[in-house]
Write a structure and sequence with these properties.
Helix content of chain B: 40-55%
Number of domains of chain A: 1
Number of helices of chain A: 7
Oligomer: heterodimer
Number of helices of chain B: 18
Strand content of chain B: 5-15%
Distance between the termini of chain B: 35 Å
Distance between the termini of chain A: 15 Å
Shape of chain A: elongated
Number of strands of chain A: 0
Radius of gyration of chain A: 19 Å
Strand order of the largest sheet of chain B: 3-2-1-4-5-7-9
Shape of chain B: elongated
Strand content of chain A: under 5%
Radius of gyration of chain B: 24 Å
Structural class of chain A: mainly alpha
Order of helices and strands of chain B: EHEHEHHHHHHHEHEEHEEHEEHHHHEHH
C-alpha cells in the first residue's frame, strides 16, 4: 500500500475511533437527546447499555469488512475494466450488509437482548426493553448509515489500491484520477 | 541522418526485418542520439520467399503505423521509414529462367564460341539449367554471374533503384552524409554473390557521382545455421550445408583482397553453435525463424551511425558464456537492453491488454467502461457519440482511432512474432537470457503479468506481483496533464511506451 493510501486509511481509523467511542455519544447526549430520550427513556443508561455496544459492534464489523476489502483488492490484480467493474456489486453488497447489520445491532441491544433474557433494562420500569421514540429510532438508523459511510465508504474510497480505487461510489467525483 | 539499408537474399531480408524492429524501438540513432530516417530496399530473385514476405510485412505494418500516427507521438513509432521496394536481379525475365538463358548460350555459342566454352568450364550443366526463380540455389558463382550484369547507371533510370539512388544523392547534399548499409550472408547464394557485387557497384557509382562522403557499410553473416535434411535429385541444384564453409572461405578471401573497394566498414557475425532449419530449396517453404545473429548484424547499423568517423575496418564480438547469450554480450547493452525490453513489454501490454480493452469499450457505455478503466479519460472523450471530441480528446469509437489501433495491433503482432522466434531459435545446447518466449505469444486473451517477458539485466527491478499491466494503467491515470502531450490512441500508445519500462511508481 502506498503512503498516499495508507495515511488517509490511518486517518479514517483514528477519526472512526474518536467518533464511535467519544464523539457520537456526546452528540446523542447533548444534541439529539430530545429525539431519543423523550417518553421517560433514561438516556445515560440507554447510551451505556444499548447505543454504545451496538455502535461499537458496528465499528468492529466495519473495520473487519474494510480490512477484508483492502486485503482482497491488494492481492488481486485486475486484468481489465470488466474485472474492476465486477467489484462494484461486491462493494455494494458489503455496504448494504453493514447497514443492515448496524440496524440489527441497534434492534438487538435496544430490544431483543432484554426480551430474550426476560429482564428489564431499567429498574422500576416494567417494559423489558428500551422504549425509544419513533423519532429516536429514525435518528439511530440514520446514524448507522452515516457510521457505515465513515467506517467503510470513506476508507475504501481513499485507500482502495490499483484500478479498484475508483470502484467505490463517488470516488471518481471526489478523488478522480490521481 | 539517413540510412539506406539494402537486404540481399533471404538472410539479408531477415536482417532488414530485425533492423525495422530496432528502428521502431528507436535504437538506430546518430551520434547525437537522434532517430535516423531509414530507407529499406530488398534484393531477392526468389520473389516467393517467405523470408522476403515476412520482412515486407514488418516494413509495411510499421510504415502504416507511421503514416497514421504522423507526429502525434514522442517515443512510440517516432522513427521515419521509407521502403523503396523489392527488386529482383531477374526482374522481367520469364518464369523459370536458367543461367544459360540469362547469358543466351545459343547466341554465345554462335557469336563467341570461346566464351561459351569458358561458360561451360565455369558452370556444370546442372547449374546452367537450374531454374533461378527460387534464388541462386546456394551457389555464389551463379549469383555473381547474374549480379555482375547489373548496371547501376541503367538501373537509376527507372523504378525502385531510381528513387533509391536519387534519395541517396539528395541526402548526401545535407550536412550529415548518409550511410548505405548492406546485409547478406557470405555462405549462401544470393547474399554471398550480391553483397560484394552490389557494394562494389555502389562504391563505383558514388565515386562517379562525386558522392565520396557517402559511406558504404556491410553486415556479412558467417554460417550460423544448418539444414535438417537435404534436397534430393528432384530439387536439382540446391544449397548444401557442407558447402557453407567453402563458400565462406572464398568470400572472406575475396573480401581480404577486394573488400576496401566494396565497403568502408564491415561487420562479420556468425555462430559456432548452429540453429537448425528444415531444408528448403526456396520459395514459400523457406520459413526460417529469426535468429539473434541477425539482430547482432543489425546492430552494425547502430554502430556505424553512432561513430561516423571510425577508421577501424572490422569489429569483433564474442560472448562470455559458451552455452548462453545474455544482454551483457550485446554491444551498448544497457541502451539496447532497455530499448528492446521496452519494445517487448509494450507489444505484450498493447496486444494482450490495451487493444482488447479498446475493443471492449466499443460495446460498453463509455462512462461505465471508464469506471473500471479510469485511464481512458485521459485520452478519449467521455461522450457517447462516435465523432465527438472534447478538450482535444477523440471518441474511442472514432473510425480514425480504430484504424490506428488496428495498425498498431498488426505491428505489435509482427514484433512479438519476431521476438518469440529469435528467443526460441537458439540452436541445440545453447540458450538465451534475453526474453521469455512463453510470454511472447499473439493469443487474443488478456495478459496482465509482465514480469517474465524480459530476462536478465534488462528486466525492470519490480517485484513480480507488482509488474503488471494494471500497474501501468494506474501510472497512466496518475500522469499529470502536463505530461500527456497527445490524445487518442496515439497518446495512449505514447504513454504506454514511456511507462512500460518504468521501474518505480511515480
Amino acid at each position: 500500500m502506498k503512503p498516499k493510501q495508507f495515511i488517509p486509511l490511518v486517518g479514517c481509523v483514528i477519526a472512526g475511533i474518536l467518533w464511535i467511542f467519544i464523539g457520537q455519544n456526546f452528540v446523542l447526549l447533548n444534541a439529539l437527546g430530545g429525539l431519543i430520550g423523550g417518553g421517560g427513556l433514561p438516556l445515560l443508561q440507554f447510551l451505556e447499555s444499548a447505543s454504545s455496544p451496538s455502535f461499537q459492534a458496528l465499528w468492529f464489523t466495519c473495520v473487519a469488512v474494510t480490512l477484508i476489502w483492502l486485503f482482497t483488492t491488494t492481492k488481486k490484480s485486475p486484468m481489465n475494466s470488466a474485472e474492476v467493474r465486477e467489484m462494484q456489486p461486491a462493494w455494494w453488497v458489503c455496504a448494504v450488509v453493514l447497514v443492515l447489520l448496524g440496524w440489527a445491532y441497534q434492534l438487538f441491544f435496544t430490544v431483543l437482548k432484554w426480551r430474550i433474557s426476560g429482564t428489564a433494562p431499567v429498574e422500576g420500569i416494567e417494559a423489558n426493553y428500551f422504549q425509544v421514540q419513533p423519532g429516536g429510532w429514525i435518528t439511530l438508523l440514520v446514524l448507522v448509515v452515516l457510521d457505515v459511510g465513515l467506517l467503510f465508504w470513506l476508507p475504501t474510497m481513499l485507500a482502495s489500491p490499483k484500478s479498484y480505487r475508483l470502484v467505490v461510489p463517488g470516488a471518481m467525483k471526489f478523488i478522480g484520477g490521481r | 541522418m539517413n540510412v539506406f539499408a539494402i537486404g540481399i537474399g533471404g538472410t539479408g531480408a531477415k536482417c532488414t526485418e530485425a533492423l525495422v524492429h530496432l528502428h521502431a524501438a528507436g535504437l538506430i540513432t546518430d551520434q547525437d542520439g537522434k532517430n535516423v530516417r531509414l530507407g529499406t530496399f530488398l534484393v531477392e530473385p526468389d520473389q516467393q520467399s517467405t523470408l522476403l514476405a515476412r520482412t515486407e510485412i514488418a516494413i509495411d505494418r510499421y510504415s502504416k503505423v507511421r503514416d497514421l500516427i504522423g507526429n502525434a507521438t514522442e517515443g512510440f513509432a517516432a522513427s521515419e521509414i521509407d521502403h523503396y521496394g523489392t527488386w529482383s536481379p531477374l526482374a522481367g525475365a520469364t518464369p523459370g529462367i536458367s543461367l544459360d538463358q540469362v547469358f543466351s548460350k545459343p547466341v554465345l555459342r554462335n557469336e563467341a564460341p570461346g566464351l561459351a566454352a569458358l561458360f561451360d568450364c565455369l558452370y556444370p550443366p546442372e547449374e546452367q539449367k537450374a531454374e533461378l526463380d527460387v534464388g541462386f540455389r546456394g551457389r555464389p558463382p551463379i549469383g555473381s554471374a547474374v549480379m555482375s550484369r547489373i548496371s547501376l547507371d541503367k538501373a537509376a533510370e527507372s523504378g525502385a533503384w531510381k528513387r533509391l539512388l536519387s534519395d541517396i544523392q539528395t541526402a548526401s547534399g545535407s550536412g550529415d552524409p548518409p550511410i548505405i548499409h548492406l546485409f547478406g550472408s557470405v555462405f549462401g547464394g544470393t547474399g554471398a554473390s550480391g553483397v560484394p557485387t552490389l557494394g562494389g557497384m555502389l562504391k563505383s557509382w558514388l565515386q562517379q557521382q562525386g558522392l565520396s562522403k557517402v559511406r558504404v557499410h556491410a553486415s556479412l553473416l558467417l554460417p550460423y545455421f544448418d539444414f535438417d535434411g537435404q534436397g534430393d535429385q528432384g530439387t536439382g541444384v540446391h544449397a548444401e550445408a557442407r558447402n557453407f564453409q567453402l563458400n565462406t572461405d572464398a568470400a572472406l578471401q575475396y573480401l581480404a583482397n577486394n573488400g576496401k573497394a566494396c565497403f568502408d566498414q564491415v561487420y562479420l557475425v556468425g555462430s559456432d553453435i548452429k540453429a537448425r532449419y528444415d531444408f528448403s530449396i526456396g520459395g514459400r517453404s523457406q520459413d526460417n525463424d529469426a535468429h539473434i545473429i541477425e539482430l547482432l548484424a543489425t546492430l552494425g547499423v547502430r554502430h556505424g551511425c553512432g561513430t561516423p568517423g571510425a577508421r577501424d575496418y572490422a569489429y569483433i564480438l564474442s560472448r562470455s558464456k559458451e552455452d548462453q547469450i545474455s544482454w551483457a554480450d550485446l554491444p551498448d547493452n544497457s541502451v539496447i537492453g532497455e530499448g528492446l525490453a521496452r519494445a517487448a513489454r509494450f507489444a505484450v501490454s498493447w496486444r494482450r491488454n490495451y487493444s482488447l480493452e479498446v475493443d471492449a469499450a466499443q460495446n460498453t457505455p463509455v462512462k461505465t467502461f471508464a469506471s473500471g478503466a479510469p485511464w481512458i479519460r485521459k485520452y478519449f472523450s467521455m461522450t457517447e457519440e462516435s465523432t465527438a471530441r472534447s478538450e482535444g480528446r477523440p471518441s474511442i469509437r472514432a473510425q480514425d482511432q480504430l484504424a490506428l489501433k488496428q495498425a498498431i495491433d498488426g505491428y505489435s503482432a509482427t514484433l512479438i512474432q519476431w521476438l518469440r522466434q529469435f528467443s526460441s531459435n537458439t540452436g541445440l545446447g545453447f540458450n538465451q537470457e534475453l526474453f521469455s518466449e512463453d510470454q511472447l505469444n499473439n493469443e487474443e486473451t488478456y495478459a496482465n503479468q509482465l514480469h517474465s517477458v524480459v530476462r536478465g539485466s534488462a528486466k525492470p527491478t519490480l517485484a513480480e506481483h507488482d509488474d503488471t499491466v494494471d500497474r501501468i494503467k494506474v501510472l497512466m491515470d496518475e500522469l499529470p496533464e502536463s505530461k500527456i502531450k497527445f490524445r487518442g490512441v496515439a497518446g495512449l500508445t505514447d504513454s504506454l511506451w514511456k511507462l512500460c519500462i518504468q521501474a518505480k511508481n511515480s
